[in-house]
Each structure stands twice: as C-alpha cells, then as structure tokens.
Amino acid sequence: GESVGLHLPTLSVQEGDNSIINCAYSNSASDYFIWYKQESGKGPQFIIDIRSNMDKRQGQRVTVLLNKTVKHLSLQIAATQPGDSAVYFCAVSLGGGSQGNLIFGKGTKLSVKP
Amino acid sequence: NAGVMQNPRHLVRRRGQEARLRCSPVKGHSHVYWYRQLPEEGLKFMVYLQKENIIDESGMPKERFSAEFPKEGPSILRIQQVVRGDSAAYFCASSQQGGSNQPQHFGDGTRLSIL
C-alpha cells in the first residue's frame, strides 16, 4: 500500500515571501505525484504534477521537487500572495492504468499575512 | 468549457433515506473517480469508473454504496439507508485518459448531511 504524510498541518507566511510545503510518501513504487489547492467550500484544484522520471518541474510561480531516495516531495510557491491562502494536498499514485486511486495526504493549511 | 459539475452542492437526508449524488465529467473525459472527504482530512478514494464499467472499487464500502457511469448521462453515486457516519463531502474527478497516473480534475463536491 501507500501512505502519505504532510510535515506541517499549518504554515503561515508573509505576503511576498516564498512558501515551501512538504510531503512524504511510503511506497518506492509510487510513480506519479500531484499537488492540489483546495479553497474553502470548493474542490481540489490541480496545481502541478511530476512523474518519477523527473526530480523537478516548474510552473507559474510554483516548483515541485521530488526526492525519490528519501521519498519526499515539496511544493514551492514564489512570492506568495493572499490568494494563495488555502489547504494544499499532495496526492500520490502507484500507477497502472487499471488503478484509479490517488492517495492524498491530510493537507497543509497555508495562511498568507498581508 | 465547463469543468466537472456535481449536483446537488448540498444534500440533507434523514437516517434510512437514500442519497443520490450526480457528476458530469469534463467534456471529452470518459474516466470518473469518486472520493470522500471528512472535515480536516484528505480525500479518500472510493471508486473509478469508465463508461458503463467499474474499473476499481477498492475504496467503496461493501454495503449500501453503489456507483454507475452509464453510456448516456452523469455518473451517479448512490448511498442507501444512510447513517450519520455517511456525512461528508463527496468529490468527483474526471480524466481524459485512464488510471491514477493521469491528472484528475475535481468538481466542487456534494456536501451530504445526515440528520
């Protein structure tokens, strides 16, 4: 099986600072990883994904780093803005076309102070 | 260019009643996934369906819960004889290609409350 844990349930940052949210997973066979953002009352919103054949991927203001050696995943948000305040989940997949399940961590609540 | 649409957004049922939750995937997506979320928790996978087929139901309770994704129309998650412990947010996701190594895009969920 697979289990996913977040290092910190809450994170508070100053507007304009960079944010780093961490995630650990247990199964070395996991091959696909996604970060989602969830605002209150809404569904998870896809931010960025990475496959196990990569160790870094960049999007707009976001970077995902994957360290397969220690089974660790992080999301970096540059120049954090108030609109980034939300709960962030990492989700991990064991892969395989016949399997549907993403395994979600419990989430880190990011608060941005103006 | 609508995303995943779920309805109703809120559903209140009394114990013993049936709850029906609907999900229309992103246009062109034929793979649908259902997840359940308790307060302060991450999402827990329930079932993965492709048109007219259940592909993976490993997260679905064995009793009272069923899901379908017919050839025409939305996917339905059905909970019979609801109990208080069924109170949760239920999210549907869809993907263009199948399997958990594809991006899944979520709707805004149905919040089910059991009185």
Report on the architecture of this protein:
The complex is a heterodimer of chains A (114) and B (115). Chain A starts with a strand and ends with a strand. By secondary structure, chain A is mostly beta strands. In chain A, β9 and β10 form a beta hairpin. Chain B contains no helices and eleven strands. In chain B, a hairpin with a 6-residue loop joins β7 and β8. The mean pLDDT of chain B is 93. The chains are: A mainly beta (114), B mainly beta (115). At the A-B interface, β4, β5, β9 and β10 of A face β4, β5 and β10 of B.
Order of helices and strands of chain B: EEEEEEEEEEE
Total count of helical runs of at least 4 residues of chain B:
0
How many separate helices of chain A?
0
CA gyration radius of chain B, whole angstroms:
13 Å
Oligomer: heterodimer
Count of DSSP E strands of chain B? Answer: 11
Shape of chain B: globular
Q: What share of the residues of chain B lie within helices? A: under 10%
Percent of residues in β-strands of chain A? over 45%
The portion of residues forming beta strands of chain B comes to: over 45%
- Poorly predicted ranges of chain B (pLDDT <50, ≥5 residues)? none
Write the layout of secondary structure elements.
The complex is a heterodimer of chains A (about 110) and B (about 120).
Chain A: E1 4-6, E2 10-14, E3 19-25, E4 32-38, E5 45-51, E6 56-58, E7 62-67, E8 72-77, E9 86-93, E10 102-104, E11 108-113
Parallel strand pairs in A: 2-11
Antiparallel strand pairs in A: 1-3, 3-8, 4-5, 4-9, 6-7, 7-8, 9-10, 9-11
Chain B: E1 5-7, E2 10-13, E3 19-24, E4 31-37, E5 43-50, E6 53-56, E7 65-68, E8 75-79, E9 88-95, E10 105-106, E11 110-114
Parallel strand pairs in B: 2-11
Antiparallel strand pairs in B: 1-3, 3-8, 4-5, 4-9, 5-6, 7-8, 9-10, 9-11
Keywords:
heterodimer, A: 114 residues, mainly beta, 6-stranded mixed sheet, 5-stranded antiparallel sheet, 54% strand, B: 115 residues, 7-stranded mixed sheet, 4-stranded antiparallel sheet
